[in-house]
Amino acid sequence: MNHLLSIKELSQQQLIELLTLAKKIKANPSAYRQALDGKSVVMLFEKPSLRTRVSFDIGINKLGGHCLYLDQQNGALGKREPVSDFAANISCWADAIVARTFEHSTIEQLAEYGSVPVINALSDMYHPCQGLADFLTLSEQFDDVSKVKLAYVGDGNNVTHSLMYGAALLGATMTVVCPQGHFPDGKVVLEAQEIAAAHGGQLILTSDIEQLEGHDAIYTDTWISMGDNASLDEIKAKFDPYQVNKALMGKAGAQYFMHCLPAYRGVEVTAEVVDGEGSLILQQAENRMHAQNAVLVTLLS
Ligand code: CP
Ligand code: NVA
Fold this sequence. Notes:
- There is one protein chain.
- By secondary structure, the protein is α/β, with parallel strands linked by helices.
- The chain folds into two domains: 7-127 and 288-300, Rossmann fold; 130-283, Rossmann fold.
- Helices cover 43% and strands 14% of the residues.
- The protein has eleven helices and nine strands.
- It has helices spanning 12-27, 51-62, 83-93, 104-113, 128-141, 158-170, 186-198, 232-239, 246-252, 271-274, 281-300, and strands spanning 40-45, 66-71, 96-100, 118-120, 149-153, 173-177, 202-206, 217-220, 256-259.
- The strands form two sheets. A five-stranded parallel sheet has the order 7-6-5-8-9. It has a four-stranded parallel sheet with strand order 2-1-3-4, with helices on both faces.
- Strand 1, helix 2 (51-62) and strand 2 (66-71) form a beta-alpha-beta unit.
- Helix 1 (12-27) packs across helix 5 (128-141).
- Phosphoric acid mono(formamide)ester (CP) binds at residues 49-52, 122, 130, 260-261.
């Protein structure tokens, strides 16, 4: 493992090893106090962030490393100088690059032209750190994560893609329920279905919310992702039947609710579900740090 650009580049064994290491770091953080001793990580964000920025910064500190935040929120990388020069220069000083970009190709360029590991902190295509934290969370709730039935409802997006690859690699069952025209990327779906089949899992796509019945956890995300200029009124009209509310949770019979956050209460999910019993949102948020620390330790020590 040289980078973490997407979960699809991991083998099943690498994914399981990352989850196992994340649990070890979470249970015994003092054993990893020096894991990144003398290492510096540059973080650059073209888009806003709370969880990712804070969990990387504090997580790197807990591992004994140093983190430098480069604020790119007001402009895309590659404007002042080519991404290739940017990556090559940062590699002269830093031991790793964490990047949140609009286009996934920017992250690929950082990995191509830099000479240090690159970690995807969200692109238009993937959010692998979120996916790792989410499967860590599920594996804390269920003894055998391969038996979990996970349903994702709403807009097929970067988070959906990472969840699909993760579920597929782990051999779990995942159902993705989206309004017509808002399904995940077709190529990602086909790849994830192939990976699922190879690992005894199943990935089902549908627009029919009745298919949610019999799932352990219901996951949703914002209906409009960062960088998407869709009109909220139009999206609300189309997505209304896909809102996660008490009735939908009851229909699914799901014990748990999941969301990567930020959540928009009253839009994709009601307050009583996101703040209610069975909501795993803060466990997911905490696990961002432990999962990312496992990635950093694997890549850097
Ligand atoms: N879930 C997540 O990535 O949150 P932020 O956008 O706040 O980093
Ligand atoms: N799909 C969302 C995730 C935010 C963490 C976005 O890209 O804006």
